[in-house]
From TrEMBL, chain A:
GO terms for cellular component: membrane. Residues 221-277 form the 4Fe-4S Mo/W bis-MGD-type domain. It comes from Dyadobacter jiangsuensis. This is NADH-quinone oxidoreductase subunit G. InterPro entries: 2Fe-2S_ferredoxin-like_sf, 2Fe-2S_ferredoxin-type, Mopterin_OxRdtase, Mopterin_OxRdtase_4Fe-4S_dom, NADH_UbQ_OxRdtase_75kDa_su_CS, NADH_UbQ_OxRdtase_ferredoxin, NADH_UbQ_OxRdtase_Gsu, NADH_UbQ_OxRdtase_Gsu_4Fe4S-bd. GO terms for biological process: ATP synthesis coupled electron transport. Composed of 13 different subunits. Subunits NuoCD, E, F, and G constitute the peripheral sector of the complex. Belongs to the complex I 75 kDa subunit family. Residues 1-83 form the 2Fe-2S ferredoxin-type domain. It catalyses: a quinone + NADH + 5 H(+)(in) = a quinol + NAD(+) + 4 H(+)(out). NCBIfam families: NuoG. Residues 83-122 form the 4Fe-4S His(Cys)3-ligated-type domain.
UniProtKB/TrEMBL annotation, chain B:
Its cofactor is [4Fe-4S] cluster; FMN. This is NADH-quinone oxidoreductase subunit F. NDH-1 shuttles electrons from NADH, via FMN and iron-sulfur (Fe-S) centers, to quinones in the respiratory chain. It catalyses: a quinone + NADH + 5 H(+)(in) = a quinol + NAD(+) + 4 H(+)(out). Keywords: 4Fe-4S, Flavoprotein, FMN, Iron, Iron-sulfur, Metal-binding, NAD, Quinone, Translocase. It comes from Dyadobacter jiangsuensis.
Length: 898, 422
């Protein structure tokens, strides 16, 4: 700690920080624009000027930019000094000289850092009397709206997009007071993290285009803390609603997970909630009208055995409620045996505790990274952004002696130049991370696994060396082994994307070898869906086992929870499965093939309409909260329906109070591996000074008028029986516990930049710790052993092509692809081939190939990817029109024109 | 009177080729320097009190002494700042067109002193002739073994490249020059770290003005004491002074450092042209404060000019006469500065166009009484330290001094709602 004096008051502060972040940590309001906690300082905007004195006797001092000045012991400064204050106020006046002052019609209004800073500095009267400069705006694609006239040239957008996220197609053009931030010409912004520009931009230049389609001011939104549903990383988000429609997703800071940024799939994938195809009514097929639901259901619920199919996209609570309804022995995971096997293996590795499972934030600090069989940009995008930072770890260490503080971003980047740490990408095709990688291997999944075994072998001789490896692969494996062994914080990233267990085994072997060499290695697995880990931890058998059980004929009804089984296996198999039951009871929020097959279809809540807990890829249990109570009383959380069904079946009286808490308690009692999940967020009876946490900001407008066309009396707001949050603007106004923070607001700080008020220090963890409870310490025993035989090499087959699933950030996720904006970015179905294979099939780029997998036939245009090994064809994973493929798969390809 | 810098320059004949330059003592300083230790060269230059001729006036040898010499930095750079874009300044052009080998020799010695193996000449795009002559001279120097590998058998290597800018004033700022040379936007960098530690491509780098580098061979040949003896007062060496404006003989002269302003204007430039009266002068380019009649007898060295409230800058003077409207004069300059702002920091990017617009409106007779207050606020708030680099503070120097010395002219514009000179 060092002592500094601000306006004569002494403070003990952390060394190594700059004055701006120090002031913010101390709770002092100092305006700024170009500084960003994740991106450091560049000193461009000159907004954070303070007076710095030589010593306590110096009364003159000089203006310095707080963001460019490191904290030193015995520093004397003043924020309130007239000269500093006048300069800050004048600086805003300069910034505003060309700003259009269109707050009333600007999407940023009410959540605008420029507004907040303008008010903070006291600039009110405009003296600039000349015409303002104007710009042409650009079309930037479905995610962002561009309004350049509002720009205050803080350079944050290009610093985030180019420097931080590795984007190529946004830049700054021209000079002097006509600098322009945009693309070289109109077009879709390509980077997968472009949506963060809406939050990084301190004003309304880049705004959320989907919000614009159904615009609502921030202060008019009902918001809740939530968890992204679109991949296994569990990024924390804030979801906002008005008039029964979900309006916007923004980043919710979690220092251990997503920090300040989320990917575009997470930001824009929410619109499935508003989909016109939502299930809105219980549907009982073949039933006479007029009967109440439970009368109709009584036959199903009380007669005959139930078989339950859980879901990796449903909450722990929902899966557990189903398990309780059907009985532990009749509960199955709704995923293929292959996928279940992969997850068992990963969980066994994680729970063995042999190799450390890092948090997402920790992956940013890896100095050598090996990615085995994943394309994180597409399968776990936020991880790819973390790995882009990780490649800077080593170069940063190399310049540690230069005395340039880490926050001095431009100077650091200048010193590092294009130097990168070691990142090795092993994947069948090119990935976006290749551009920052120091080594690559394009190979079939089998050969990626063999490469991994070879790396392990070179570190630990007891791991057998795969036979017949090409000399070049051997060489890069040896080099990789060497690098990993020399690393301080080596990281192995692997996962389920290629449906290859040997890859996972290889990653584990490497991790183990490093641990044996007493290296603090991290082993990070990417899983398929948002609650894959949670579902797998329930240790239920797979869908294949359920099919086998169904064939016994002992079950009367299949109960399917939020799971489109037709995506999981071939159509004929699922048809056969359903035909084995008298009834099928399907709970889901969207129409899909499984829902259409149901004899009883129950409408359920999406993540926005209900509470639940998810377990992410690092086994962090995190709670998401209901954003709004659906007007439609039929739409309820799956767990609520299922628990009611159970009570009906058991003839007990429904217990509505503390239903979720009780369920969590039962869950933990029944399955101790979930111990701690109940503490992911405070329970429903949590209050501060007897008050709930309001979901609505205190400026929420029109509460008494918004339904006046229906009735003039204000309706009673819904009561939340499941969480400590209220659906109104009344309640505790202070700082809620981190897992319960529905929005960021602080007096004078209306925009999301106010997040620093919620942190223990500017840029640091949230007050009270970053949310989520890791379940890794809990003992679970998985039967899967750690075999160590190295796999056989990939062999080309002449009759059938081996297929490899290629994950796409936009398209491969079942729910987000229903958002029109995401759908617009999703690829059309294709088949990727090496040109030698294409030649053999007499097809060229764009020609149509007929592909037969089992009894399914697809017509697909050819995309040439010459890096693909011969005999291997790539297929976009899980596109709506390409689902129902049981991976790993093989296909027979024929030229459609022959 | 000795004129080492211009002794071999004559525009009545083509500039010296390598043979002529060598015949007149060229590259002797290099031969001598290569036999010395790099540190002793730096010490000699530091002892000579040579100050940067680009405008800042920092001790050149001291600047070099900040370059790490411990062997941990295999890559270092030396750069000649030949991006001469200060309005009214054309001294480097004369040096490069008049004797390109002098610059090249100075650069090789300087690069050797900091043990740099790569050097660049960052040349203003409009200096086409200088570019041609330098290219030719570099080819000759390479052929003669003064550049390239194993220079004169000493084992020292130096590559030299000519890089032509695209005509941005900000590239004269050394860190913006470095960014431009790296292919980035010509935006200045924050200091620290200084280029001596983290310069071009993040490596230790020295950027020196052309005139500064041209002095180096002479200091090596004749020693620091000789160099100091050339100056008249506070500062060492000679200086290329220039005068432009309505004088009888505008031009450039190599004179002892510290010559008086009166000598320069009256003796060298022949005094004001017939019918024109001296009203003031910017002593060292457009980004220096006006000096007026009362200052005519001050010596043109760094300290004396600073004491008079201005800066020696590049030492090339622009004269304001009584037939020229000072408001229009300053507006012209502010137009230039506003246009040449890189757009990085707020005060410069937004403040300069504002002052330019106010000045234009005053000049057009649309000025308001509160405008002078607003201009003064700008001159104060665009001061050193408030902006990212020295461009805006430099731009405010002629304006703040014009407001001081020619205030009644500004007021007349506003009162009469027109420019009295039109």
């Amino acid at each position: 700690m060092v002592r500094i004096y601000i306006d004569q008051k002494p403070y003990d502060v952390k060394p190594g920080k700059n004055l701006l972040e120090t002031c913010l940590t101390l709770g002092l309001d100092l305006p700024y624009f170009c500084w960003h906690p994740a991106m450091g300082s560049v000193g461009a905007c000159r907004q954070c000027a303070v007076k710095l004195f030589k010593d306590e006797n110096d009364k003159t001092g000089r203006l310095v930019m707080a963001c460019m000045e490191g904290v030193r012991d015995n520093m004397y400064l003043s924020l309130n000094d007239t000269a500093a204050h006048d300069f800050r106020s004048q600086n805003i006046e300069w910034l505003m000289s060309n700003h259009p002052h269109d707050c009333a019609v600007c999407d940023e209004g009410g959540s605008c850092h420029l507004q907040d800073m303008t008010v903070m500095t006291g600039h009110a009267y405009r003296r600039f009397r000349f015409p303002k400069r104007t710009y042409q705006n650009q079309y930037l694609g479905p995610f962002l709206h561009h309004e350049m006239n509002r720009c205050i040239q803080c350079y944050r957008c290009v610093r985030f997009y180019k420097d931080y996220a590795g984007g190529k197609d946004l830049d700054v053009f021209a000079a002097h007071n006509h600098v322009y931030f945009g693309r070289e010409k109109d077009g879709v912004l390509e980077n997968e993290f472009s949506g963060n520009l809406a939050e990084v931009c301190p004003t309304g230049v880049f705004t959320d285009k989907t919000l614009r389609e159904h615009y609502t001011r921030k202060w008019d939104m009902t918001m809740a803390p939530s968890i992204c549903q679109h991949c296994s990383l569990g990024c924390n988000i804030i979801a906002g609603e008005r008039y029964g429609a979900l309006r916007q997703i923004t980043n919710r800071f979690n220092g251990a997970v997503n920090g300040y940024f989320i990917c575009d799939r997470g930001r824009y994938g929410y619109e499935f909630v508003n989909d016109p195809g939502r299930v809105r009514q219980p549907v009982i097929r073949g039933e006479k009208e007029g009967r109440n639901l439970f009368e109709s259901l009584s036959g199903i619920l009380t007669g005959g055995k139930l078989l339950g199919i859980g879901s990796p996209r449903a909450s722990l609570e929902a899966n557990f409620a189903l398990r309780r309804l059907v009985g532990e022995e009749n509960f199955y995971q709704g995923i293929s045996e292959n996928e279940a096997g992969l997850l068992r293996k990963i969980l066994a590795i994680q729970h063995s505790g042999h190799v450390y499972t890092p948090s997402l934030k920790e992956t940013e600090y890896a100095d050598v990274t090996l990615v085995l069989g994943e394309d994180p940009t597409n399968s776990a995008p936020r991880l790819a952004l973390a790995l882009r930072q990780a490649v800077r770890t080593k170069p940063l260490e190399n310049i540690a002696g230069s005395n340039i503080p880490l926050w001095n971003d431009a100077a650091i980047r200048e010193m590092i130049q294009d130097e990168k740490g070691e990142l090795f990408m092993a994947y069948p095709v090119n990935t976006k991370l290749d551009e920052v990688a120091s080594g690559m291997l394009h190979a079939a999944p089998e050969d990626i696994a063999r490469f991994g075994f070879a790396v392990a072998h070179y570190m630990e001789s007891s791991v057998p060396e795969p036979e017949g490896l090409p000399a070049q692969t051997k060489e890069s494996a040896r080099r990789m082994a060497d690098l990993l062994q020399k690393a301080e914080r080596p990281l192995i990233v692997s996962g389920t994307s290629l449906f290859n267990e040997d890859i996972i085994q290889a990653a584990y072997q490497i991790g183990q070898a490093l641990e044996k060499a007493e290296k603090k290695a991290g082993l990070c697995f990417v899983l398929p869906e948002c609650n894959s880990a949670g579902l797998a931890m329930m240790q239920a058998p797979s869908l294949a086992m359920a099919m086998r059980a169904a064939e016994t004929g002992e079950f009367a009804t299949a109960v399917v929870l939020e799971n489109d089984l037709y995506r999981r296996a071939e159509r004929s198999e699922i048809d056969r499965f359903f035909n084995a039951f008298k009834n099928s009871l399907v709970l889901d929020h969207l129409e899909n093939d499984t829902a259409r097959k149901a004899t009883v279809l129950i409408p359920t809540a999406t993540f926005a309409e209900g509470e639940g807990t998810l377990v992410n890829n690092e086994e962090r249990a995190q709670r998401f909260f209901q954003v709004f109570m659906p007007k439609n009383e039929h739409i309820r959380e799956s767990w609520r329906w299922l628990d009611e069904f159970r009570q009906f079946r058991e003839g007990t009286k429904p217990d509505e109070l503390r239903e979720l808490d009780n369920l969590l308690e039962e869950l933990v009692n029944a399955m101790p591996q979930f111990k701690g999940a109940e503490m992911a967020a405070p329970l429903s009876d949590f209050r501060i000074n007897g008050q709930r946490i309001p979901r609505e900001p205190h400026r929420f407008s029109g509460r008494t008028a918004m339904l006046a066309n229906v009735a003039v009396s204000e309706p009673k707001p819904p009561v939340d029986t499941d969480s400590p949050l209220s659906f109104t603007m009344e309640g505790y106004r202070g700082m809620p516990p981190a897992p319960l923070t529905p929005f960021y607001w602080s007096p004078g700080w209306n925009s999301g930049q106010s997040v620093h008020k919620y942190q223990s220090e500017a840029g640091g963890p949230l007050r009270g710790g970053d949310p989520g409870v890791r379940l890794l310490g809990n003992a679970v025993h998985f039967s899967n052993g750690f075999h160590s035989a190295s796999p056989a090499a990939f062999k080309r087959q002449m009759d059938e092509m081996a297929l490899v699933p290629l994950t796409h950030i936009f398209g491969s996720d079942e729910l987000s692809v229903l958002s029109p904006s995401v759908e617009g970015r999703s690829p059309r179905p294709y088949i990727a081939l090496n040109s030698l294979d294409a030649e053999r099939l007499h097809v060229s780029e764009g020609a149509i190939l007929k592909m037969r997998i089992g009894d399914q036939v697809f017509d697909l245009p050819v995309t040439l990817k010459n890096e693909l090994p011969e005999g291997l064809a790539g297929l976009p994973y899980n596109l709506p029109s390409l689902s129902g493929i049981a991976w790993p798969a093989k296909g027979v390809l024929t030229n459609a024109t022959v | 009177m000795e004129t080492p810098l211009t002794q071999h320059i004559s525009f009545d004949r083509p500039c010296y080729n390598l043979r002529d330059y060598e015949k007149n003592g060229g590259y002797q300083a290099l031969r001598k320097a290569l036999s010395l230790s790099p540190e002793s060269i730096t010490n000699t230059v530091q002892a000579s009190d040579l100050k940067g001729r680009g405008g800042a006036g920092f001790n050149t040898g001291m600047k070099w002494s900040f370059v790490p010499m411990n062997g941990h930095y295999p890559v270092k750079y030396l750069i000649a700042n030949a991006d001469e874009m200060e309005p009214g300044t054309f001294k480097d052009r004369m040096l490069m067109e008049g004797n390109p080998h002098q610059l090249i020799e100075g650069m090789i010695i300087s690069a050797f002193a900091i043990q740099a193996n790569i050097s660049y000449i960052f040349l203003r795009w409009a200096y086409k002739k200088a570019g041609r002559l330098l290219t030719h001279a570099m080819e000759e120097a390479y052929a003669a073994g003064y550049l390239g590998k194993n220079i004169l058998g000493t084992g020292y290597n130096l590559e030299m490249y000519l890089h032509t800018g695209v005509g941005r004033y900000i590239c004269g700022e050394e860190t913006a020059l470095l960014n431009a040379l790296e292919g980035k936007r010509a935006t200045p960098r924050a200091k620290p770290p200084f280029p001596q530690v983290s310069g071009l491509f993040g490596k230790p780098t020295i950027v020196n003005n052309v005139e500064t580098l041209c002095n180096i061979p002479h200091i090596i040949n004749n020693g620091p004491d000789w160099f100091k003896s050339l100056g008249k007062g506070n500062d060492a060496g000679t200086k290329i002074y220039g005068v432009s404006g309505r004088v009888k003989r505008p031009g450039l002269w190599e004179l002892p450092m510290g010559v008086s302003m009166r000598e320069l204007i009256e003796d060298c430039a022949g005094g004001m042209a017939n019918g024109y009266r001296f009203r003031g002068a910017l002593p060292g380019g457009a980004s220096t404060d006006f000096l007026v009649e009362e200052h005519l007898d001050i010596n043109l060295d760094y300290k004396s000019v600073a004491a008079a409230g201005s800066r020696l800058g590049t030492g090339t003077m622009i004269i304001l006469d009584d037939h020229t409207c000072p408001v229009g004069f300053v507006h012209n300059l502010e137009h230039f500065f506003a246009q040449e702002s890189c757009g990085w920091c707020t005060p410069c990017r937004e403040g300069l166009p504002w002052t330019e617009k106010i000045l234009l409106s005053i000049e057009r007779g649309e000025g308001r009484p509160e405008d002078l207050q607003l201009l003064e606020t700008h001159t104060r708030l665009l001061g050193p330290g408030n902006t990212f680099c020295a461009l805006a503070p430099g731009a405010m120097e002629p304006l703040q001094s014009a407001l001081k010395y020619f205030r009644e002219d500004f007021e007349k514009h506003i009162d009469q709602k027109k420019c009295p000179w039109r």
